[in-house]
């Protein structure tokens, strides 16, 4: 990739749009983009305007901030109020609402919760504050798990004993499996996530085609990437095939990043179960620190409330995360719930579907509103 313009050519986009229209034919095609980054790219670049009406894109559970349940936010806040604790986390998590408010709300009540750009920054905080206990609230799919793993390995090597991790790392494969197993899903294919695939590889999704007969194309994030991936999905459907293909070959290796996977495997293991916002309990779908690294596991050092907290009753983020609703179909979208006053995580997160539709999809709203009735809350 020499210049970004290579992936934003209007002439090539129009050619791909014509190919997509021909491949789509008269049938209806419902495609889920798993990654929140794809949702933002789709609406930022006006991809729906290049698609025929019978090609429908729906959002999936690929926003890591969005799928963390409110109870885990409350667990982190409880840790933050323990004596001598500094809680650190990524900026996306600071405004996510829990049952006891957000991290920013907790700071206003006297907690010390700090934004960092990486877990290694959290480790620096621990070095500079040897008399404080520093906890990193880790979040993300396999994309960010290697950085957490590397930080734990560094802390162990340096013998830093005032640093620990509250792991909220989740796994994309079990989430896709849960969606495919859910009754009433009528998905015809998937745009595979680009960022997480740089770590786990395109081969990690072979079960989608093998066990469920659904095609999946791992896609990049530029407009021509997305359009080409959609064309590849439709061609598979036209030819009666269901395969996993890798459109994003300039970044994603078929077998993944072996060094990153080794670091994850050395320090973490799948949890027996974990609650996801919108998907409920999914077995073996999240990562916890291994016994060998128990000294760096915040869940072993602190007593967590562990309560299940219901989402705001007006918020339909769960339905958005599973592709059952478009964001604008939520009764509070863009009125009570905005990026300045978010009710749910899909609006507060920079990768959330509601935030993408709000920032980039308002003109699209009118067109989509004629395609399906808005359900009552």
What does this structure look like?
- This protein has 17 helices and 13 strands.
- The radius of gyration is 21 Å and the shape is globular.
- The chain is 38% helix and 16% strand.
- The protein is of the alpha/beta class and 377 residues long.
- Strands 2-1-7-8-9 form a five-stranded parallel sheet. A four-stranded parallel sheet has the order 4-3-5-6, with helices on both faces.
- Among the domains are: 146 residues, Rossmann fold (3-Layer(aba) Sandwich), CATH 3.40.50; 53 residues, no CATH class.
- Helix 7 crosses helix 12.
- Helix 2 links the parallel strand 1 and strand 2.
- The longest helix is centred in the middle third of the chain and has 16 residues.
Topology:
Elements: H1 10-24, E1 29-35, H2 36-44, E2 55-62, H3 64-67, H4 70-80, E3 85-89, H5 103-108, E4 113-115, H6 119-128, E5 133-140, H7 145-158, E6 163-169, H8 172-181, E7 189-192, H9 197-200, H10 206-212, E8 216-218, H11 223-238, E9 244-246, H12 258-267, E10 268-270, E11 273-276, E12 280-283, E13 287-289, H13 298-301, H14 317-321, H15 345-348, H16 353-360, H17 362-369
Parallel strand pairs: 1-2, 1-7, 3-4, 3-5, 5-6, 7-8, 8-9
Antiparallel strand pairs: 10-13, 11-12
Helix pairs in contact: 1-11, 2-16, 7-12, 16-17
């Amino acid at each position: 990739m020499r210049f970004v313009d290579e992936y934003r050519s209007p002439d090539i986009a129009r050619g791909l749009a014509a190919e997509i229209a021909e491949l789509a034919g008269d049938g209806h095609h419902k495609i889920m983009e798993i990654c929140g980054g794809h949702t933002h790219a789709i609406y930022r670049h006006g991809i729906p305007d290049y698609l025929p009406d019978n090609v429908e894109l729906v959002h999936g559970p690929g926003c890591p901030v969005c799928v963390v349940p409110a109870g885990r936010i409350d667990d982190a806040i409880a840790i933050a109020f323990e004596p001598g604790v500094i809680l650190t986390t990524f900026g996306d998590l600071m405004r996510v609402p829990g049952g006891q408010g957000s991290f920013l709300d907790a700071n206003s009540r006297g907690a010390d919760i700090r934004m960092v750009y990486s877990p290694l920054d959290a480790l620096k905080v621990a070095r500079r504050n040897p008399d404080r206990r520093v906890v990193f609230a880790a979040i993300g799919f396999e994309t960010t798990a290697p950085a957490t793993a590397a930080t734990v390995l560094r802390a162990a090597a340096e013998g830093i004993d005032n640093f620990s991790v509250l792991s909220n790392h989740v796994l994309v494969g079990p989430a896709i499996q849960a969606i495919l197993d859910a009754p009433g899903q009528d998905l015809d294919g998937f745009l595979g996530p680009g960022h997480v695939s740089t770590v786990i590889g395109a081969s990690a999704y072979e079960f989608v085609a093998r066990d469920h007969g659904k095609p999946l194309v791992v896609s990049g994030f530029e407009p021509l990437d997305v359009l080409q991936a959609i064309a590849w999905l439709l061609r598979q459907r036209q030819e009666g095939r269901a395969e996993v293909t890798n459109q994003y070959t300039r970044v994603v290796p078929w077998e993944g990043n072996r060094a990153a996977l080794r670091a994850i495997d050395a320090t973490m293991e799948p949890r027996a179960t974990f609650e996801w916002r919108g998907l409920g309990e999914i077995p073996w779908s999240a990562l916890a620190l291994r016994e060998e690294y128990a000294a760096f596991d915040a869940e072993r050092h602190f007593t967590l409330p562990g309560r299940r907290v219901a989402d705001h009753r007006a918020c339909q983020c769960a339905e958005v995360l599973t592709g059952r609703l478009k964001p604008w179909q939520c009764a509070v979208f863009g009125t009570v719930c905005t990026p300045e006053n978010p009710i749910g995580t899909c609006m507060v997160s920079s990768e959330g579907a509601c935030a993408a539709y709000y920032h980039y999809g308002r003109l699209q709203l009118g067109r989509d509103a004629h395609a399906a009735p808005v359900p009552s809350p």
